[in-house]
Amino acid sequence: MSKNKINTKVLSGFVELLPQQQLTFDTIKNIVEASYRSSGYVAIDTPVIEKSEILFAKAGGDTEKQVYRFSKGDNDLSLRFDLTVPFARYVSEHYNDLFFPFKRYHIAKVYRGERAQKGRYREFYQADIDVVAENELSVMYDVDIISTIASTIENLSKLCNLGNFKMKISNRKIWDGFFDEFSISGEQKASIMNIIDKKAKITPEVFDAELSERVKNSNVERLIKELFELEFIPNIGVSIPEKYHSDFSFLSANEKMKSGIRELETVIKSLQTIATDKFIIDLSIVRGLDYYTGTVFETFLDNHPEFGSVSSGGRYENLCDNYTDKKICGVGGSIGLSRLFVPLIEDGVVTNIAPGLVDVLVIPQNENCYLIATEIKNKLSEGLVNICKTSIIYENKKFKKLMEYANKVGAKFVVIVGDDEVKNNAFTLKNMQSGEQVALPINDMLNELKKNFNR
Amino acid sequence: MSKNKINTKVLSGFVELLPQQQLTFDTIKNIVEASYRSSGYVAIDTPVIEKSEILFAKAGGDTEKQVYRFSKGDNDLSLRFDLTVPFARYVSEHYNDLFFPFKRYHIAKVYRGERAQKGRYREFYQADIDVVAENELSVMYDVDIISTIASTIENLSKLCNLGNFKMKISNRKIWDGFFDEFSISGEQKASIMNIIDKKAKITPEVFDAELSERVKNSNVERLIKELFELEFIPNIGVSIPEKYHSDFSFLSANEKMKSGIRELETVIKSLQTIATDKFIIDLSIVRGLDYYTGTVFETFLDNHPEFGSVSSGGRYENLCDNYTDKKICGVGGSIGLSRLFVPLIEDGVVTNIAPGLVDVLVIPQNENCYLIATEIKNKLSEGLVNICKTSIIYENKKFKKLMEYANKVGAKFVVIVGDDEVKNNAFTLKNMQSGEQVALPINDMLNELKKNFNR
Hints:
alpha+beta, 5-stranded mixed sheet, homodimer, elongated
């Protein structure tokens, strides 16, 4: 590159894929979208730019520092850092034109000026689903969210050969009720929740030591550890192991804890009808963001622990309260599309899941054949829309060079248009894999290709 | 709304659609994408944020003022104002990993802080296609771009009942060669091109007066007007009417003009094989942006002159020269998706082109039926992925209320799950249009729905 040219490298922390990688990523994105749609979630599209006051009504300190914020005219603007806050604004603004329960999906880019590191991007795709309603919303929608995410990840995992996954599920009401019982609140509660959140990432010894230091009450400390053994027993339900029942005698009077356990039971029981080994109770799942109020979940790939949770979400009650007097409650979940798949694609772990860039390449052999070849290409493109991708190459080069191009773009068939073919009104259709070739008039060729690409 | 709530209205000049409108817009967007793909264009996705120096290498004064520009850390950043400049950067950066001619499409949002007015948005979708290659690129790719845009607009126009359209085509080499002939250049040439560009929007009298003032040479003025009569005659070609031949005797020695006329002839001749009434030579099409160097085109809807050109583009030679020493030439076109369709959708002109938000709604009649209804819904969602959209409603409300919801979301079928249905293991499938209902086991229901939605 000569000195006076501008550096064209993409900004640090931003993603840019080559065409075949892009096709792979888009194939994955389309599968997620098809899965969300087929489960009854409908698309919305909100602006990338929001008024800063909208975004900062809920955002915590760390998020605020990461936001791309700027002025234009008199407006204090920011790029969205997630899809949930814009959704809360959308629901508040369009409340009278929506129907509830309202199930929406949104697959789009969000922006966070994080320190750039592998798998952490400054612009990345999230794939969100949420259900919201006014005042109340059956806990069965928690099941709807989790099962939709589960079947989406199942599809992706199969396609990309990622192996098994587990969804760890909890309910924040259980901890909230528990800490109420012992009058633990404010900073102390936050500090204990914080170490519970870290449990899976640290050794049991460190966890015990940290827990002890934060709780400062050996009885409560023991109960917390016993609570982690909360279990689901098919045909019976979710309960604390019998040996601890006497320790939890207070439970019968603690409505919040009981309600959390009942909800967790409903969720787990319903999910068992889908699979018996994928959905696990894990009370260490609390989710950092403080807006969750009930069910919470995270998702882990058995063979790819390096990604941490690849999909998470939960139930919230107060997300719209800065925007409207209406009491909107909801439950949602999100798949971190870029964070999961961009590294897998760039590292060549996920590859060859998408077809070639071009399926059928029309090759006119000289300039006299351009016009008829163009007609053929247009007929194939139109006749095979949504079935396959037809292109054409106009280059005055040796046939071998043109076939090299066909191979590069992954063409499964080439259509050769030369002087003889034009004279006979039958064009050579060559299968690039088998090497077989037949001479066909255009309509027969259209049918032959339809048969080949329509499974 | 109470006083202390934040205003949730979307920013002025930004678009936000209701779910049914969004589905209509997305249907249109998908048709464009399918059309581009089927013609052999491949997707790329570049960041919304670029380094400002990348964007401003080519942008003119007015564009620069409209750009959303801001700093983050040490970086001077901007939101892209079109998809062409980022594409030029992409091609320069990834040159060695691409294959040429490289045909790409990109359908995405771009940003311009224009004065907000109807049909002018600050965030809007463009749908671009381009072909680029090093050093040379056959004029047949101009045909590929124009015919792909034409068949896309044809599909959209039919779907949305927009009536006929015309594509006006010219070639900048004709004017460039003409002005060279008379040594007209610099500001005078720009000023004359500017009034030529406005010809269709002003009266002939005003045009004549303005032209005369700017040309200041009655011979040249007459020749310009004669040149506007350049015509295509089937089986002969593109030429100046015979009565003017002696005026243009210099043409035989003007290579640039001749080359422009020959290219225009190739383009028009090839397009005639698609339709004889859609492609018109119009030398008043010059396209404001100065990077075009050959073929230029604009597209007009007969019944909607208020939109001006709904799709335009052309040939360029020097788009990458700020980024690379390689000589990249290309041709491209763009459909202004938001500018055309958002007003038509918001005004209710384009409506009912998309199906309902939900196709099949599962309705459990009481809480005892939730679990089995959930299983049914999951089976339908999975079995009918990419075929139809299945949802479920968990609400303890009267059946009538639930049916109202079914109507609101546009459900074509409801599946009723009540105690009797569970007992008999056959569930009521009701056609919402005909009122017909049948009781079916789940697998039969799956097949019945498949038959109904798979055309």
